[in-house]
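Final report, section 2: Outcomes. Of the targets proposed, GMC family oxidoreductase is the one most frequently requested by collaborating groups, and we therefore present its record in full.
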Amino acid sequence: MPETFDYVVIGAGSAGCVLANRLSEDGAARVLLLEAGGADDADEAHIPVAFSTLFKTRYDWNHETVEQKNLGGRRAYWPRGKMLGGCSSMNAMIYIRGNRADYDAWPAGWRYDDVLPYFTRAERNTRLAGRYHGTDGPLHVEDRRYTHELSHAWVESAVTWGMKPTDDFNGELQEGAGLYQVTCKGGRRWSTADAYLRPAMTRQNLTVRTNALVNRIIVRDGRAGAVSYSRHGEQVEVGASTEILLCGGAVNSPQLLMLSGIGPAEHLRDLGIEVVANLPGVGDNLHDHPAAPLLWRTRDTTDLVNLVTPGRLLRWQASGRGPLASNVGEAGAFFHTRDGLPAPDMQVHVAPTLFYDNGLREPSIAGFTAGATLVDVKSRGRLRLRSANPRWRPLIDPAYYDDPTDLDTMIAAMRVLLEISATAPLARFLAGPFLPPAGEPTEDDLRDHVREITQTLYHPVGTCAMGSVVDTDLRVHDIAGLRVVDASVMPTVPRGNTNAPTIMIAEKAADLVRSSG
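The predicted structure is given below as tokens.
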């Protein structure tokens, strides 16, 4: 007989760590958490400025898309965290919830007023309080303990240009320009592994197994009752007497459902997978926030990369202060590119260095980056299997700019960023354009630039969406004992960074699970 737990949680990322904590609060519930990666033991997983150095390492799933016709045939690299804490252990730590309009368009039970209590329950904000913020949750949120002068200058110039100043993107109004708050504690990354998992790992009823790649969810007589995984060269099966909770994210969750026979029947049969439940929506509705940066050479200032020195590392280790406490994308904004929109359609991330190609290119000169990020995404893609082998990466097609409105919006945002760059006080620090190289780019220049430089903003969602794949309690249609709890259940991507919304979903899911037990 296989070892049996009450709950088996698949994936120790942003959602899985929350569930492991909340479900094991009941000392009588036996909880198993399975993670394909290892511990979050890299120094870079805790130093805010170093997040991109984890890309394409053993801490990364290292996904890539299929060729994107609207990106000149390029395949876009998609980093995804493969360690305790998942993406919360290697993201840029920006704490953004999204706009009220996002959730008010979600199904009943997930509207803004429904989910706000879960945001505040999770949050421990060191500065903000009141209706919109929590001050005693496990997730530390703070003002960054280092901000470069270029980030301050950009915010001042954006306000001079015409944006509203804001010191809270998560309050009553999202729109405006300001400095981002981050999920850090005392200048150090505070992932869900720190916030939720480690405090729970002392509980006797919680078992955590790393390096455990789940191959299949086993469904018998319409009920998901066991999980098969490989670990250290062995195949292991464990049972779940109450529920299995799939928290693999927008890539790995639909992949595992399809490997388990849950998904579009024709596609599964083509790969020789027995169909357990014909759910055509699995893998559909894939969308992401595309980001396209503008870059400049700078003068009379410093570059963040050059400030990361051994001496400053010692300072950060001692006090959590100095340039290593920077999250790189220090400041930004939300704004409308045209009148009549219910909420902003663009987000900006600015960095006091040259950050492009996911930060994988070492800056050769001192520079500054302003990245346009489309947050009202019209294009939809899909995810499918390459093989019935769980070790094969899936086919990922976000269909960037398939809806021409998305590209038009990005070009309009580029024009705004160019105008801000010519506005004081930022203008005096910018020595000239780096990418695109043209001083006054034409419409065609900007379109070519966007196609050449667009990358993910690391926010894929929607592939197990509420409605088509799961119900509003996140239970998989036609399968008992199985829920999906992660960004894949979002019917539409929120306007902003998706880590906080994923944590919110898991907090609410924990209540849903406990109330049905």
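The first helix runs from residue 14 to 24.
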